[in-house]
Amino acid sequence: MGFFSKIFTWWDGATIGTSLWSALNGEQVGTDLAGNRYFRAKKRVKAGQPFAGSERRWVIYAGANDASNVPAEWHGWLHGSVDGVPESRLPPPRVWEADHTPNATGTATAYRPQGALERGGRRAAASGDYEAWSPDA
Amino acid sequence: MPKVTIDGEQIEVPDGATVLQACELAGKEIPRFCYHERLSIAGNCRMCLVEVKPGPPKPQASCALPAAEGQEIRTDSQMVKLAREGVMEFLLINHPLDCPICDQGGECDLQDQSVAYGRGGTRYYENKRAVTEKYMGPLIKTVMTRCIHCTRCVRFSEEIAGVDEIGALYRGESMQITTYLEKAAAHELSANVIDLCPVGALTSRPYAFEARPWELKKTLSIDVSDAVGANIRLDSRGREVLRALPRINDDVNEEWLSDKGRYMVDGLTRRRLDKVWIRKGGKLQAATWLDAFAAIKRAKPGASIAAIAGDVVDCETMFAAKTLLGAMGSTLLEGRQTGMSYPTGNLAAVNFNSTLAGIETADAILIVGSHVRWEAPLVNVRLRKAVKRGAKVFVVGPHWETTFPAEFLGDDAAVVHELPGHVTEALAKAERPAVIVGGAGLAAGVLDAALALDVQRDGWNGFNVLHMAASRMGGLMLGFAQKGGIADIARAEPKVVLALGADEVDWSQFAGSLKVYIGHHGDKGAHAADIILPAAAYSEKDGTYVNTEGRVQFAEKAVFAPGDAREDWTILRALADAFGVRVGFDSLAELQAKMISEVPALGVEGLASYGKLPKAGKTKAKGAIRYPIQDFYLTNPIARASVVMQRCSAELLHGEDLAEAAE
Predict the structure, then answer these.
(1) Sign of the dihedral defined by the CA atoms of residues B394, B398, B399, B403, in that order
(2) Residue B661: pLDDT above 50?
(3) Tell me, what DSSP letter sits at residue B72?
(4) CB contact under 8 A, A135 and B562
């Protein structure tokens, strides 16, 4: 991945600024199966600022910045629900857990309601909220 | 004018005011269930307790206590608070906790007041009273276990409606409100008890489990079921009007609404015209707007075009038609569909001059050819009030069941020329005499004879004509009248007849014309038409209506018209383009501005002024009077399409048993 693709595909992964900031101020605590990297700040939030004394945590996505890509266990860690990183705290994934489905918003596979133009735009005529008159009746 | 002190604030209240009214004047909210401004005082719910000095050292029911000089009233003391909590607790002893499945939920006085004035929790763990189910007809759904015995419904039936239909059995906790013998409440205002009921004991049967009040869009509108022009609120969800409720307007409908105005709204979703139809080879076939316009154009009407307005159209539609016809060079306009031809040169002679509120103060009333109870139930309420104040009422016409003492003078219209001595004497002696000429009277040519009666006094004009069509006065103001009525139009043999929702016309007299029906319901007019252009009903367009007393009122659009239907004026505007004439408006605002510049009275909400009554002509009234309304519930195309109205007609007027769904 070249320097230019980093600039022009800013929606994939971290921007240069974020990468730089993460390298200087953060330490990587883990990686999930999808390759997303999780960071926490080296220093706690300063006194006098909002959330003073807490630990800042963030994620750098592998691929598109799709927040639904974060697995449940890491979601809990990112939001401060658990203290330690998931590998040390949580049981391993269950066999019945479904794989992640990427967010389809904005893509061709996104959900379209019935009658939407992208689904052909055909709406049910006289959709039953009134009864039309016909001369034979 | 006694002076009282309310919560430390001294105010002067009118003579005869109760303590509750005094508190209201002082801006204090007094909770109540049984008290209602328009009903007599019952004093049986005890919710309006306040502390009054001088008096016994206990809280007193403020609704039944007259305000007296020097009273010290407290509505905010600990005693009052505890008293309200206590009353609320007693009321809730037997009230089921079924708010989640109760239709009154969200607009329930008991709900609101128990939140505002009740205790936080219950201390009651015993069994609750249960009441056997009652049947009150196709409009009123009863769950009498919820009843809190306020007796508002009983008082309404007795005092306002004037029929002893609802009453109470047994006493104390075991009291039950019932129609006796499980009879349906059959009068024309029966459904008003639903609004009056402070709890969910009486709810609307057609609206049962349809919606919650907070999910409905409320639109201010005008009732078109009769010529009274009752102020209503249309509650709609999505594209459907779910219910109509009366708005308070003391000049028109007070706070009542006739059952027809209230329940014909389900007809707005049935038998709707939603596409263009053209008759080909004797059969109506679906078509497009362009085909229809081309077909009308092919008839090449030139100036040979007429417009006949129906009973529920708004002034804007009529004016658009008038302008279109004017641009074509025709003045063949008529709104009196059934062929009446009374003179309309002076509109004061066909107006309800005493005003609807004014008729209450009349002291001698002669009704000529009007079944008031069916033609205008809300005027009947006023007449009953007048009689309660001591008015004498005489009726010329076939007998109908009045809700007040009235003397029937005979069926023949000629009676008006030689009224019995005691009637002329009563009218002559009266300070505020009134005559009400109904549709049947107009048809029998009573107008001149009625004008000859002296019913004018200083500051009082008691000459009244009671119309039945919501569009009548507006139509007359816009000139929808020929000298000879609709017969003149038939005689002119127009090539094209525009029927603006005209369903009561005898279409056989227009056999040679191209009949273009512009309307919203597939009724008689649509069956007779050659071309049908779907238009909007009263709930689907902004419109101006003029009621029988000449009161100009505006209605707002609640929902959109179904399918291909368009607002009427846009159809007429498009027709103007098809004919290649200019009508001078491109939007509703322009149309209204043009209409108001032509008839300024239509731009001002309120009573239009028609000037002085004309001198009586010489037309003799003759013939038996026949009331035009045969069936109260089925008088207009919307009501005829309504399942609820059909059921009311079948059960309440024709005595069929209501086939109730098995539960």
Answers:
(1) negative
(2) no
(3) E
(4) no
Long-range contacts from A102-105, C-beta under 8 angstroms, 24+ separation = A102/A64, A102/A66, A102/A68, A102/A69, A103/A66, A103/A67, A103/A68, A103/A69
Chain A, nearest residue to B285 by Cα: A135
Which residues have C-beta within 8 Å of that of residue B245, sequence separation ≥ 6? B195, B232, B233, B235, B257, B262
Determine the Cα angle at B513 with ends B508 and B518, to 5°.
90
CA nearest to A37, candidates A74, A8, A72, A7: A74
Residues with Cβ < 8 Å from B615, sequence gap 6 or more?
Answer: B451
Answer whether B50's CB lies under 8 Å from B73's CB: yes
- Count CB-CB contacts under 10 A for residue B22: 27
Residue ranges of alpha helices (H) inside B430-523 are 439-443, 447-452, 472-477, 486-492
Please indicate if any CB of chain A lies within 8 Å of the CB of B271. Answer: yes
Residues of A in contact with B242 (CB under 8 A): none
Interatomic CA distance for residues B340 and B508, integer angstroms: 17
In whole angstroms, give the CA distance from residue A51 to residue A56: 9
Long-range interactions of B585-589: CB distance < 8 A, separation 24+: B585/B320, B585/B323, B588/B316, B588/B542
> Over the stretch A29-88, which tens digit does the pLDDT of each residue have?
988 888 899 999 999 988 888 888 889 999 999 888 888 889 888 998 999 888 888 877
The answer to whether residues B551 and B251 touch, using CB atoms and an 8 Å cutoff, is: yes
Encode B455-470: b = buried (16+ Cβ within 10 Å), e = exposed. beeeebbbbbbbbbbb
Amino acid at residue number A31: T
Contacts of B46 (CB under 8 A, 6+ apart): B61, B87, B90
- Taking Cα atoms as reference points, which of B370, B525, B547 lies closest to residue B443? B370
B270 to chain A: which residues are within 8 Å by CB?
A: 130-131
Kind and range of the H or E element at B519?
A: strand B514-519
Q: Which of A129, A131, A135 sits opposite B277 (nearest CB)?
A: A135
Global confidence as pTM: 0.83
* Cβ contacts of B68 within 8 Å, gap of 6 or more: B2, B4
Q: Is B633 helix (H, G, I), strand (E, B) or coil?
A: coil
CA distance B267 to chain A (A): 9
Please, which pLDDT band fits residue B25 given cuts at 50, 70 and 90? very high
Residue B232, phi then psi, degrees to nearest 5:
-130, 165
Mean pLDDT of the region B371-392: 95
| Alpha-carbon radius of gyration of chain A | 23
